[in-house]
Amino acid sequence: MAGGDIENRGGGAKRYSNSINDSSGGSYISSSTYMIDDTEPQWTSWLVPVFVVANVAFFVVVMYVNNCPRHKLVGKCVARFLGRFSLEPLRENPLFGPSSSTLKKLGALEWTKVVINHQGWRLITCIWLHAGVFHLLANMLSLIFIGIRLEQQFGFLRIGILYLVSGFGGSVLSSLFIRNNISVGAPGALFGLLGAMLSELITNWTIYTNKGGWNTGTSRSGLV
């Protein structure tokens, strides 16, 4: 089997065609060709790191306002050496964070306050609050692993809008189905980014498999 490749070096598009030898010693060129476009621009990721820093900063502010030693005996606070940044006792908050009253005060999502008291701003503020250190770490690691790649591929504007809209939608759903407890964090925003990543992967699955086949030296014919 012999093959010929035509590459457009002025751009990133490559055209591949295959010629196949027949049993009589002759050869013919198959009509199967396909194009691979590797000119997709790469954006610099800066918005996702800003989101991460903002979430960490909000958590520090929440812990400052919480001030565990002020409303509890010093001996009951976790990590007492942190002073007013000390964590609530584990029996009250096993995630190593502030009290529920502090979260409510600073904008946690609560059904009665949103629906009855018309505090719609809580649908946005709850996205930037976290229940504890473990909660914050889990969300930020997920945001970094998923968000940076998407921002490099699609740009900060699309990813920023997707993050905020998905977070708002998740808050609305939480306010409809969670009525007896408060809700904080950005699971809706993270699931929105994850859905975008899976959608892009499924849509371009053929492109990824074709690139992987040629990168490993595998010759394929009959591709369109």
From TrEMBL:
Segments passing through the bilayer: 43-65, 127-150, 156-178, 190-208
KW Transmembrane helix (keyword) present: yes
SUPFAM superfamilies linked: Rhomboid-like (SSF144091)
Regions annotated as coiled coil: none
Chief location of this protein within or outside the cell: membrane
Signal sequence annotation: none
Major enzyme class: hydrolase
E.C. code: 3.4.21.105
Reaction catalysis annotation: Cleaves type-1 transmembrane domains using a catalytic dyad composed of serine and histidine that are contributed by different transmembrane domains
Peptidase S54 rhomboid domain location: 118-211
UniProt subcellular location: Membrane
Keywords: Hydrolase, Membrane, Protease, Serine protease, Transmembrane, Transmembrane helix
Membrane protein topology class: Multi-pass membrane protein
Membrane found in the keyword field: yes
Family per similarity comment: Belongs to the peptidase S54 family.
Protein name per Swiss-Prot or TrEMBL: RHOMBOID-like protein
UniProt source species: Gossypium hirsutum
Taxonomic lineage from the root: Eukaryota, Viridiplantae, Streptophyta, Embryophyta, Tracheophyta
